[in-house]
Design brief:
This protein has helices at residues 2-11, 24-76, 80-92, 101-106, 110-120, 122-126, 129-141. It is an all-alpha fold.
């Protein structure tokens, strides 16, 4: 039993203080307490690590979405007001879904999604007769 006490004390790194177990019963109780303490400590460290890791993953996902928005802004020359509205919407409604342009658009509110889609696809829309007529009407109204 003394050997088991010595090994347990060494493994759980409790140390060899001034107080130590003298009888077999004291050694058994001390070994159990050391194992419980090591288990609780491991559980707490694991839980904290998990929480920090999940916060970090969420922040990375949001950063990726914001970088995608910046790329879209540069590629399609978004105005600052629309960019800021989309950015606020992303920060507010952030989820952990996959990031591609379609998914990115699907996460936006419908009005912002429509505005951004029109800007992104304006070259395609220019060639469609229906939108040409609407553009002329819009210019007449304004």
């Amino acid at each position: 039993m003394s050997a088991m006490y010595y090994v347990t004390t060494t493994v759980v790194t409790v140390g060899y203080g001034d107080l130590h177990a003298n009888t077999t019963l004291e050694r058994i109780v001390t070994i159990l307490i050391m194992f419980v303490g090591a288990f609780v400590y491991s559980y707490i460290v694991g839980s904290l690590s998990s929480i920090i890791l999940s916060m970090d993953a969420s922040a990375r996902a949001l950063d990726h979405k914001l970088n995608t928005l910046i790329e879209i802004k540069q590629k399609y020359m978004l105005d600052t007001i629309l960019f800021n509205k989309i950015k606020r919407a992303l920060k507010y409604g952030h989820t952990r879904q996959e990031d591609d342009t379609t998914q990115f658009l699907n996460e936006l509110p419908s009005t912002l999604r429509t505005k951004l889609s029109v800007i992104m696809h304006k070259e395609l829309l220019k060639d469609i007769e229906f939108f040409k007529v609407r553009r002329v009407l819009a210019e007449l109204i304004v």
